[in-house]
Amino acid sequence: MFTPYFEVCDSEGISTVRIQGSCCNTRCVSEQDLQVVSSIGETIGRIWKRWPGYREEGNMDHEYFGLDVPQGINLKVKVLLLAATFLLNHMFFEMS
């Protein structure tokens, strides 16, 4: 009910994949996974965020993001998912 849900559409407005997150997409959680789901409901990948933790000697505002999708997926869908990764970072995790 309160989970993030995004539809990734192609240039014609047709939904190609969906991105589904957990109910607690907050910056304070060190690990986040969002599922990339095909149009038939099959999980085909994930967008993830990792925070390395607090360190006295360094800036702790650094996080790692990744996109894991099958190698055979359409290139246009990969590009759209990469753009969605940046959008999700800005919407849920960016503070500055």
TrEMBL record:
InterPro entries: Scramblase (IPR005552). Its cofactor is Ca(2+). GO terms for molecular function: phospholipid scramblase activity. It holds the Pfam family Scramblase. It comes from the Eukaryota. One of its GO terms (cellular component) is plasma membrane. Keywords: Calcium, Lipoprotein, Palmitate. May mediate accelerated ATP-independent bidirectional transbilayer migration of phospholipids upon binding calcium ions that results in a loss of phospholipid asymmetry in the plasma membrane. Belongs to the phospholipid scramblase family. This is Phospholipid scramblase. It comes from Triplophysa tibetana.
